[in-house]
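W.,

You were right to be curious about this one. When I first looked at the sequence I had no strong expectations either way, so I just let the prediction run and decided to look at it fresh. Below is the sequence, 204 residues in total, followed by the output.
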Amino acid sequence: MSNKNILIITGVLYAIFSGWYTHLGGPMTNQEIDQAIVGLTKNGMKQEDLQKWEKFMRTDTGNQFIMLNAIDMNPSPPKMPKTRQGAGPEELMNIYMEHMYAEQFKRASHPVFFGHAVHTVLDIAGIDNATSWTHGALFRYRSRADLIEIALHPSSYERHEYKIAALTKTIAYPIEPTIYLSDLRFLVLLIMSLIYVSIVAIRR
């Protein structure tokens, strides 16, 4: 196979990946938002939360975003239907995340970062009960529409109860990145370019 053909195949594969990884549908329409509100209401979302989600949808840009999570695990979570007596918070969180991971990966959404806190908060202002956290996480979502689809899944409300039970407190809010060096489109392009260059060099 010629170097030109290898380059074409590499370019096609990258185009397929980039097309899947990028939301091409634009912002959510009013009809999509109205349908989502009906579905979230049926799933049992509280009115105050529903108002936040509606604003989140109506200000949609169609772009990817990162969900920033500050997490404080509950050392003694309650017994839940799918967990044994005395189960730790990680076991409850795993039940929630096994559903979330499957739904995220279908929509080119995934964790970007997860880590354990090594100290209490070093800088805080204007927030009560926020000096201590156990974990931090970043999750990339391809679009707001993708997150809404996940939230509308029949299992989402039931599984969300396990997340709440696993935590003493949490903060989660969305950010549209202006600097995002971990974007997989960039990393995959870099890796594929290096592979192509290496193949060409070996064939010489």
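Here's what jumped out at me. Helices lie at 3-21, 30-42, 47-58, 89-106, 144-152, 156-166, 184-203. And, maybe more interesting for your project: The beta strands are 65-73, 110-116, 135-141, 167-175.

Coffee later to discuss?

I.
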